[in-house]
Amino acid sequence: MIYQTVCLHGISFGLPDASIRESKERVRTAIKNSGYEIPSRKIVINLSPANIKKEGAIFDLSISIGILRNLGIVRKENLKDFVFIGELSLDGKIKACFGILPMCIASKKLGIKTIIVPKENSKEAAVVDGIDVIGVENLKEVVDILNGELKVDKEKIDIDELFKMNNKNTMDFSEVKGQENVKRALEIAAAGGHNCLLIGSPGSRENNVIKKNDYNITRIKL
User: Fold this and answer.
1) Whole-angstrom distance between the N-terminal and C-terminal Cα of the chain?
2) What angle do CA 148, 154, 157 make, to 5 degrees?
3) Buried b vs exposed e over 95-115: b needs ≥16 C-beta within 10 Å?
4) Which of 102, 129, 125 is nearest to 115 (CA)?
């Protein structure tokens, strides 16, 4: 929720981390460089719920759209069915973010119908069925889409075809007998993108298991 008050020029947030506090200047400059003006008023942005600390620059796009909607630049009335994710550059371009997939899954559970994400993250977001994904490159493009001045195609992806393209490794864990704890640890490392170190005496076949784990990394990569 966003309010304007006749006060000193500035933007304030609720319980933000350092990256969100710094977004004041990113958002203001991105809006200006996209061809829009912010009046000399204090803008209060409520990042609800207030008792939960917010982290990361992923709020930049949603904050800027909220401000532009409040100013009447974004004319679309109902934005409740939309989610906006993305970090803004000073020139108004939208940069890729981490964690797009779980955010899209959570949005679907909340009944969100359309999610607007950075172009670089659009294929990852499109993996989630039942939600319309739109990839964008800059702030002005988002405003034009919401105002009906720009028509864009929703991102579509064939998951099975994607896995076939990325799966060039013919080895997998089915060739490893036993070692359930080791395989489980490697699967978790591959899923989370973590480092993993295997130590063993010569002949314990740790190198063989690592080679088989390449399949898991390929399978998860989008």
Assistant:
1) 34
2) 175
3) bebeebeebbeebbeeebebb
4) 125
- Cβ atoms of 53 and 11 within 8 Å: the answer is no
Predicted structure pTM score: 0.69
CA distance 167 to 221: 9
Query: Domains in the chain, ordered, with CATH?
Result: 2-146 (3.30.230.10), 159-220 (no CATH)
pLDDT per residue as tens, the chain (222 positions): 554 443 434 555 556 677 777 788 889 899 999 999 888 777 887 777 777 777 788 899 999 999 999 889 999 888 999 999 999 999 999 999 988 999 999 999 999 999 999 999 999 899 898 899 999 999 999 999 999 999 999 998 877 776 666 555 555 666 666 677 777 887 787 777 777 777 766 655 555 555 555 544 444 444
Q: CA-to-CA distance for 63 and 84, rounded, in angstroms?
A: 9
